[in-house]
Amino acid sequence: MATPRTLIDSATIGARIDALAGRIAATMPEDFVMVVILNGAFMFAADLSRALARAGRHPTMEFINLKSYGDATESAGQVRVLGTLPERLDGRAVLLVDDILDTGRTMHFARALLAGLGASPVQLCTFLDKPSRRVLDIRAEHVGFEVEDRFVVGYGLDHAKKWRGLPDLAAID
Ligand code: 5GP
Ligand code: MG
């Protein structure tokens, strides 16, 4: 497999996340919960949470482990929960954070899951958006970058469990 080619470098990512955090700080209520979808969103969430702290916001953080992809680059079409879910979130405002909004199945599933735990309102925040791939009608309030329909790795995203630690976002052809 070819070496990944940089699409968005780490400095550009950092600047964009600061801007995102500013907008989130301006639109989320004082008390909110950041719910992070693992594994792919771990790096984005780490940087976003620190940018939020610099913007004066300190949300509670929860993590859910969802899986919709195997080692292939095509969605399995089904989302599963791995591990445990957060406690009830009755009346808590939630910022749901994922790495990439692709077909929309993962975010759709996660939003319903959080609604079932009582979370309200729920805003969606995704590092990347691939609108051309959407199967379900779902949009995120906060988007880092819109990308074309190609498989990306780095900045938390893997291919066959590799490349998550790349500081840049890169494409595999
Ligand atoms: P969806 O459920 O929206 O189809 O897919 C969302 C999940 O699929 C993402 O959270 C991510 O884990 C994975 N995914 C979708 N597109 C890509 C991609 O281009 N690269 C990687 N590494 N993962 C992707
Ligand atoms: Mg993911």
In short, what is this structure?
By secondary structure, this protein is of the alpha/beta class. The chain contains three helices and nine strands; from the N terminus they run βαβαβββαββββ. The strands form two sheets. A six-stranded mixed β-sheet has the order 4-3-2-5-6-7, with helices on both faces.
What would your notes on this structure say?
The chain is of the alpha/beta class and 173 residues long. The protein has a single domain (5-67, 78-171), classed as Rossmann fold. The protein is 25% helix and 32% strand. The chain contains 3 helices and 9 strands; from the N terminus they run βαβαβββαββββ. The strands form 2 sheets. It has a 6-stranded mixed beta sheet, sandwiched between helices. Strands 1-9-8 form a 3-stranded antiparallel beta sheet. The model has no long low-confidence stretch (mean pLDDT 94). The site of magnesium ion has 5 residues, from strand 5.
